[in-house]
From TrEMBL:
Keyword line: Endoplasmic reticulum, Hydrolase, Manganese, Metal-binding, Purine metabolism, Signal
Protein name, entry field: Ureidoglycolate hydrolase
Signal peptide from the UniProt entry: 1-23
Taxon lineage: Eukaryota, Viridiplantae, Streptophyta, Embryophyta, Tracheophyta
Organism the protein comes from: Lithospermum erythrorhizon
Cofactor(s) this protein requires: Co(2+); Mn(2+); Ni(2+)
One cellular component term from this protein's GO annotations in UniProt: endoplasmic reticulum
EC number: 3.5.1.116
Length: 470
């Protein structure tokens, strides 16, 4: 029976078998079957029911049901999803994921802050595992695919391999990361940052509260994580995993517009986040004459335009900048703003180029402050993470998997950042993208088709299989 096959062949030999399978005469057989025959060294079609795809294909219908069920754990009505860290619905979602892991035969554990791990031990369980995963928390009124695809899709990829009879050499591990979104405590990728051993964030969490003045520790304990104060126990050493692969919706329009089913991510851009405050004298909108004004609002507006200019002057399409918050005080139509507050996001895959833009924004803020006779009371860089590059051997594994499945793919960068950015500090990493409707994300209209999801899960499954034999 297929389920009894156990694969423990040297990776180079497996590659040879795969190349042989690609040379088969085109007999209409599904390429997944050809690939798995190459893995097993045994012709699958002679030992299955008349529908040979039944043991290999993704359970698309079941997976869609899981998306819907997980989306029901939400603080906002459908079709939107709101699932905030350590909330009641977040706890219910965690329970749901752990149950799915158990049903797939994975051994499940959690660390001090709630990162969830489901492991399938291979023939050599002492080897560093190949890991995959993402997050399930959702910002207010968002969609049901961001992050979730990388968790539910990873569990289904394990199921695909198990149904095929494949047995890994290295362990395979699915990770559900805690709080990729910064919604509640203002720290993005919280779980993966701690796994990467970023000590300053562990220290920061000791004094972090949400907008209801609930501390991070109290919120975690209320969610059942009584050992949360032992944050260092979540740290992992470099090399803890041999590889990490994250499956994700693109969150951009490129794959859909170009009708390409798979994106292979070569680099992840990282942001530098800046807070800026100007202070002027304010005054009556009618009585204060224009030449004598110290308008903090106009200073903010001028800096916002300067952000755009410096980003465009970088000469790279990969450099982006956004003024996402601009607040004026006192906020009255007939009052000259006496205070203004901006929050700026700049991103790039080139750290030096991004940091040059940040410095130019700082110089502009100083110049505008002097010219408009307002005080620059704050220019604070609150986050300046380095970008990360994908490892070539994982890129090649994903590329060859797509080719063997006859799925066109495109090498691309990720302009959004993910837990993979911090997993790169622990192990080699890469990402696999699937197209999403109009590139929508972080909104209820976020959507990935069943076909796109199925393609992504198949590519992930074969990529994991390849990496697990190395």
């Amino acid at each position: 029976m297929i389920s009894r096959f156990s694969i423990a062949l040297p990776f180079c030999f497996i590659l040879c078998l795969i190349h042989v399978s690609s040379a088969y005469e085109d007999d209409g057989k599904d390429p997944t079957i050809k690939t798995m025959e190459a893995f097993s060294g045994y012709p699958i079609h002679e030992h299955v029911s008349p529908d040979p795809l039944s043991s290999l294909s993704v359970d698309t219908q079941g997976l869609q049901k899981q998306f819907d069920e997980l989306a029901s754990f939400s603080d906002s009505p459908a079709p939107s999803v709101t699932r905030i860290l350590y909330s009641e619905n977040d706890v219910l979602g965690r329970r749901y994921i752990k149950n799915l892991m158990s049903l797939s035969g994975l051994s499940v554990r959690e660390d001090a802050i709630g990162n969830i791990f489901g492991r399938w031990n291979g023939d050599e369980p002492e080897l560093a595992a190949v890991s995959t995963g993402s997050h399930t928390d959702a910002i207010p009124y968002s969609g049901k695919y961001d992050g979730v695809l990388g968790v539910l899709g990873a569990i289904e990829a394990i199921n695909v391999l198990k149904r095929s009879g494949f047995k890994p050499k290295r362990p395979l591990e699915v990770i559900m990361f805690t709080s990729e979104e910064p919604t509640r405590f203002g720290i993005s990728c919280l779980g993966s940052r701690l796994m990467a051993g970023i000590k300053e964030h562990a220290e920061l969490l000791k004094n972090t509260v949400d907008n209801q003045n609930i501390s991070f520790f109290d919120a975690a304990k209320a969610a059942g994580y009584s050992n949360v104060e032992n944050l260092s126990s979540a740290f992992l050493n470099k090399g803890s995993y041999s590889a990490f692969v994250e499956l994700h919706i693109e969150q951009g329009p490129i794959l859909e517009e170009e009708a390409i089913p798979i994106g292979v991510v070569t680099a992840i851009a990282a942001p530098a986040s800046i807070k800026v405050d100007f202070e002027g004298n304010g005054g009556h909108a009618g009585a204060a004459l224009m030449p004598t004004r110290n308008d903090a609002g106009l200073a903010a507006a001028e800096l916002a335009l300067a952000v755009e200019k410096h980003v465009l002057d970088s000469g790279s399409i990969d450099t982006v900048g956004t003024v996402g918050i601009l607040d004026l005080h006192p906020g009255a139509i007939n009052s000259i703003p006496s205070k203004s507050h901006l929050e700026i996001d700049t991103r790039d895959i080139d750290e030096k180029r991004r940091n040059t833009v940040v410095e130019k924004i700082h110089q502009s803020a100083l110049s505008i402050s002097n010219k408009r006779r307002v005080m620059l009371s704050q220019f604070k860089i609150i986050n300046q993470d380095p970008p990360a590059s994908s490892e070539e051997f994982i890129i090649k594994a994903a590329e060859s998997s797509a080719r063997e499945l006859n799925l066109p793919y495109k090498k691309m960068i990720s302009r959004a950042y993910h837990d993979s950015l911090f997993m790169a500090r622990i192990s080699p990493m890469a990402m696999i993208f699937v197209p999403c409707y109009k590139g929508y994300s972080h909104k209820p209209e976020e959507y990935a088709s069943p076909e796109a999801i199925t393609d992504g899960v198949k590519v992930l499954a074969l990529t994991l299989a390849k990496l697990s034999t190395q």
